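Structure first, sequence second, as always.
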């Protein structure tokens, strides 16, 4: 029998069409082009915010928990802690007050009460304040301490039934720190974990924490304390989180004058960063004469003393500082004056009407960071919902604005128009503490899924 060999040309003629056909099936050139789409919104049926445990206070002082709803509905919000579940009856404009428990509290709402949950903690001795926030997957806490005179405690709260896990990165002045106790921190469902940084990463310099939730959901808070080695006195407050580093960091609610003012900047990039500090007043934003740029090495946190700047006449009208840098940084300002500790961190931009709760006493609204000319309508209410103030505040580029609030006000509604804005309520009764404004959660997000994507 005669065998014929297939030459190369014939083989390619047979094989190439088969290969091309297979590639066409895999590539699917006839499939419609896909484009990234923003998530769609849906009606919110359940939501919550997490409040950490109350601060110890002095002279028998107790922290107060305040709860309200910006949904316009009447009903009961749930207050869930490790001790059990109770409820708070809310109505439009009203604020419910009660002693804060020793353990963290999850304030939850369903159906009509799911949108617009507002809660906060405060105390008077020392003066402290904190806006309770929804869970977040990634947060920065800059300027924490782990030494004998400046100590911080990280509080992780799991609002759900399943286990949650967090990875905590630490930056110091010499670069990243390897802290085994902060890797893979597990928090069982319905419980919380407190980590004294001084016991796991003892340091004398200021640090920055980057908390990333790898599994489940966690409410994260940092309790910051200043100690005197002699005399046995201390002061404490909550350090509020920053969701992501930025090239422009606006810290509102400064208390200029004598005291110890420390600005901490954290750089998580691979390049050295250079930052400048500008003062924010009610009429302008400017760089003071003689201000020295701050250099922040890659993957490091650097503390800079601003006593001369904030203690001088140039800053006497300052309501905030703005840090402008060539790389994205996380920032905080820590001030100790007259035995009072004040902590500032950049707050989020507010685009839509928002609500915040606060204690009675002297206070003012501080606004800045507008990206266009606009106005903000401000309504202050007493705890029973009675309207105490209704006023419009003008907003403009490169300037701030302040508005004194009635002492009896325990809630404030701020509605920006024609521009976004950043703001805080600065408490001034026996010290200084701030409640930041934020966007309220009013709708759910539904991911966009395109045909043929996975």
């Amino acid at each position: 029998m005669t065998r014929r060999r297939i030459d190369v040309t014939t083989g390619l003629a047979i094989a190439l069409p088969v290969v091309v056909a297979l590639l066409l099936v895999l590539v699917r050139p006839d499939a419609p082009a896909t484009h990234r789409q923003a998530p769609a919104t849906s009606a919110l049926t359940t939501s919550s915010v997490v409040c950490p445990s109350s601060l110890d206070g002095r002279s028998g002082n107790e922290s107060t928990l305040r709860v309200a709803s910006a949904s316009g509905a009447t009903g009961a919000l749930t207050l869930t802690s490790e001790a059990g579940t109770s409820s708070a009856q809310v109505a439009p404009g009203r604020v419910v007050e009660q002693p804060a428990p020793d353990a963290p509290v999850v304030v939850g709402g369903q159906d009509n009460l799911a949108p617009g949950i507002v809660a906060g903690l405060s105390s008077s001795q020392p003066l402290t304040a904190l806006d309770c926030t929804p869970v977040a997957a990634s947060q920065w806490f800059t300027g924490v301490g782990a030494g004998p005179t400046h100590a911080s405690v990280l509080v992780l709260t799991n609002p759900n039934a399943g286990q949650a896990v967090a990875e905590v990165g630490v930056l110091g002045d010499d670069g990243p720190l390897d802290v085994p106790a902060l890797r893979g921190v597990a928090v069982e469902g319905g419980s919380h974990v407190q980590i004294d940084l001084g016991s796991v990463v003892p340091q004398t310099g200021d640090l920055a924490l980057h908390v990333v939730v790898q599994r489940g959901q966690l409410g994260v808070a940092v309790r910051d304390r200043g100690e005197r080695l002699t005399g046995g006195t201390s002061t404490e407050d909550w350090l509020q989180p920053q969701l992501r580093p930025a090239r422009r960091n606006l810290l509102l609610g400064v208390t200029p004058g004598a005291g110890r003012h420390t600005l901490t900047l954290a750089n998580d990039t691979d390049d050295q960063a250079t930052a400048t500090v500008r003062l924010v007043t009610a009429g302008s934003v400017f760089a003071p004469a003689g201000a020295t740029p701050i250099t922040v090495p890659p993957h490091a946190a650097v503390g800079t003393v601003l006593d001369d700047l904030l203690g001088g006449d140039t800053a006497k009208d300052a309501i905030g500082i703005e840090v402008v840098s060539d790389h994205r940084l996380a920032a905080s300002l820590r001030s100790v004056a007259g035995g009072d500790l004040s902590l500032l961190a950049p707050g989020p931009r507010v685009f839509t009407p928002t609500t915040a709760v606060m204690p009675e006493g002297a206070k003012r609204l501080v606004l800045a960071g507008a990206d266009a000319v606009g106005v903000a309508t401000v309504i202050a209410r007493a705890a029973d919902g009675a309207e105490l103030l209704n006023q419009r505040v003008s907003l403009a580029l490169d300037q701030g604005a302040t508005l004194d609030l009635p002492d009896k006000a325990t809630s404030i509604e701020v509605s920006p128009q024609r521009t976004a804005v950043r703001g805080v309520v600065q408490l001034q009764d026996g010290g200084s503490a701030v409640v930041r404004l934020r966007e309220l959660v009013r709708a759910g997000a539904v991911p966009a899924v395109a045909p043929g994507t996975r």
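Margin note: Residues 8-27 form the longest helix (20 residues).
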